[in-house]
Amino acid sequence: MGQMLxxxxxxxxxxxxxxxxxxxxxxxxxxxxxxxxxxxxVLIAFTQxxxxxxxxxxxxxxxxxxxxxxxxxxxxMEAVKDMVEKNAIGMVYSSNFSIGVNIFFKLIEKSARIIxxxxxxxxxxxxxxxxxxxxxPSGTAKTMQDILLKELKRKNSICEDKLDRKIAPDExxxxxxxxxxxxxxxxxxxxxxxxxxxxKHTARTRExxxxxxxxxxEWIKDKKGLFTEKDMMDQILSxxxx
Length: 242
What we know:
The chain is α/β, with parallel strands linked by helices. The chain has helices at residues 2-11, 34-37, 52-61, 77-86, 99-115, 139-151, 207-220, 229-239, and strands at residues 42-45, 65-68, 90-93, 122-129, 157-159, 171-178, 185-191, 196-202, 225-228. The strands form 2 sheets. A 5-stranded mixed β-sheet has the order 5-6-4-7-8, with helices on one face. A 4-stranded parallel β-sheet has the order 1-2-3-9, sandwiched between helices. Helix 3 (52-61) links the parallel strand 1 and strand 2 (65-68). Helix 1 crosses helix 7 and helix 5 runs parallel beside helix 6 (139-151). The protein is elongated, with a radius of gyration of 19 Å. It starts with a helix and ends with a helix.
């Protein structure tokens, strides 16, 4: 992801002043420090989940705005919100910074509201990733689940497990697949006795995550407070009159 971030930044004419990585030979610094932070306006963090809170603390320490592209830390959301507000920085986070995925989230949101009015259509979903992915379901899948439960009044719970029973009318079955080299595929199916409507996002490469993160860095640069990618998308769409 670091290499892709560097490529996307150059394409958007965004200057990269520091590359922090304890292992990569081309990194400018092995760890976050004053010298690494000196010229930076915004930090972008793609790390393992166990490093996420430390990176947020470091951003607060050096008073730098942050794009948090790591998942697996949101159980500490209240503490993070408190840190961000006390240190007067801006932070934007998402389960997936790909612009295509965030357009996909918007399509799920709008379509679920429509489908909820037509009881002939049931709802199911799935996601698939490469065999090296450590979490299941993905952070993107979790966001999809949250959207569906919010917009569908007749669905109250998600079942992620294997089903050895008939699914309840108020449940959505959300399956996860792991194998091969799949960068990421996510889909929602609206199925009736007559037809199927499918919304699907398929990532070709991981470069979309990097490009979206650079856009998020440009967006958060002069802001203060804790934001989600949804806040950014809402503002962009509002500015476009959508």
